[in-house]
Specification:
Pfam families: Peptidase_C14 (PF00656). Helix content is about 25%, strand content about 25%. By secondary structure, it is of the alpha/beta class.
Length: about 210
């Protein structure tokens, strides 16, 4: 895995353990198994220790993140990074568990922050959220020319509660996320393809 940091002078030490957790609701989400297969392949290629759980309830989303945090903090070997994939139906800021109940994304993000997970302080934490964020459908727009994404990062003198975290959503606020009932999610399938074939730091891969 490459670095979240864009500066060549500041790079994360990726020599330690790389840990991944995938929580996926497959109920009424055709194509989810293809996404899980693709993610498993990606984590193998990127040398991650991967844990996957299918059809968690809303409470189990929270419990699995907390168990993941406890397992990380209890390890004696160095940890390099954590990669969390959350896939379910959803609304803005919420995921729907297999039981139909909702869990707040902010509560899930708290599990690995600097207050609750000391082993991941100043370590990259990547969240991939494959879920709808509303009911609007994006028909797309035709544009010309190249789009350039500029990313900058200041260096704070103190460490706040949330640092070194990257939240990547499959769609923008208020819109649905597209998923093929046989080929899987457009976002997850493209993510795996780029991450397993491309080279460069993570921001470059995500921009691609």
């Amino acid at each position: 895995m490459s670095n979240l940091r864009s500066s060549e002078e500041e790079k994360y030490d990726m020599s330690g353990a790389r840990l991944a957790l995938t929580l996926c609701v497959t109920k009424a989400r055709e194509g989810s198994e293809e996404d899980l297969d693709a993610l498993e392949y990606m984590f193998q290629q990127l040398r991650f220790e991967s844990t996957m759980k299918r059809d968690p309830t809303a409470q189990q989303f929270q419990e699995e993140l907390e168990k993941f945090q406890q397992a990380i903090d209890s390890r004696e070997d160095p940890i390099s990074c954590a990669f969390v994939v959350l896939m379910a139906h959803g609304r803005e800021g919420l995921l729907k568990g297999e039981d139909g109940e909702m869990v707040k994304l902010d509560n899930l993000f708290e599990a690995l922050n600097n207050k609750n997970c000391q082993a991941l302080r100043a370590k990259p934490k990547v969240y991939i959220i494959q879920a709808c964020r509303g009911e609007q459908k994006d028909p797309g727009e035709t544009v010309g020319g190249d789009e350039i994404l500029m990313v900058t990062k200041d260096s704070p003198q103190t460490i706040p509660t949330y640092t070194d975290a990257l939240h990547v959503y499959s769609t923008v606020e208020g819109y649905i996320a597209y998923r093929h009932d046989q080929k899987g999610s457009c976002f997850i399938q493209t993510l795996v393809d780029v991450f397993t074939k491309g080279k460069g730091h993570i921001l470059e891969l995500l921009t691609e």
